Amino acid sequence: MAGDIMSQSEIDALLSAISTGEMSAEDIKKEDETRKVKVYDFKRALRFSKDQIRSLTRIHENFARLLTTFFSAQLRSYVQITVASVDQIPFEEFVRSIPNMTLINVFEVPPLDGNILMEINPNIAYSMLDRLMGGAGGSHSNVDNLTEIETKIMTNLFERSFDNLREAWENVAEIDPMLVELEVNPQFLQMISPNETVVVISFNTIIGETTGMINICIPHVVLEPIVPNLSVRYWMQTNTKEISPEQSKMLESRVKQAKLPIIAELGSSDITIEDFLTMAVGDVIPLKQKIENPLTLKVGSLPKFTVQPGKLNNKMAVQIIDPLKGGDEDE
After folding, report:
1. Is residue 267 pLDDT above 60, yes or no?
2. Which among 77, 102, 185, 211 has most CB atoms closer than 10 A?
């Protein structure tokens, strides 16, 4: 029992049994030690592993950052959206957890089957609407009294905001979210069976001085074809993207056009600081380089070739003799 979560009715029954003497603390301890069968609630079937839930959390943390940027630009107000929790629960439990009157966007995500729900708390929704209409971002309307103009404005906003999900999911699956309908009463939603497992991602949302929740509900049937893509191993494999031949040719042509500094060193010498401070025009500095030896040509700071000095079209020039060994020829 130490690892199980007891409901309130079970707790009440247990306390009642202890208070009436029907069961003692020692009996409970013995029962716990001898119990070999663990209670499993089939209504709360866990379809996703902890690793997959962590992957979904990472995806939607990125989505939250994209939403923050998008809504900040659209509403021209302070917006902060962060992931509060990611849970897998029965669909019936999700419906019971949201207000009776709220704003629910139903999206298709082809090529995946099924629909995704985006539930926006009415306070948040009307704060957005007020900002779009030029207001200060207050929340004072009733969700069941949406006018056609308000409905159109809000559906356009949320439809464009859900485009960010495409970018957030691009490393896992190529999806194309499309708004199907806008609903205000969750009791009218008959998407899937009440006992079907869904993943609910809850976002803490702040718009100006208004706070509330945005929930995204993803049924298991939607994620089932791409469940293997939610593993850490898949993410590590897809982090390195291959370059196409066209991209490789374009990159090569741009690298060939890059300019590099070329330096031909005549030689070097060691002098004292006193000599350096007293140098004047006409002074001669003896170099360690012999006149019959080739010079060193540097590309950037790396010595690459031996060269000999000369003239070309009345300009000083050098002629390359040999590449220098150990001059990083592959760079």
Report:
1. yes
2. 102
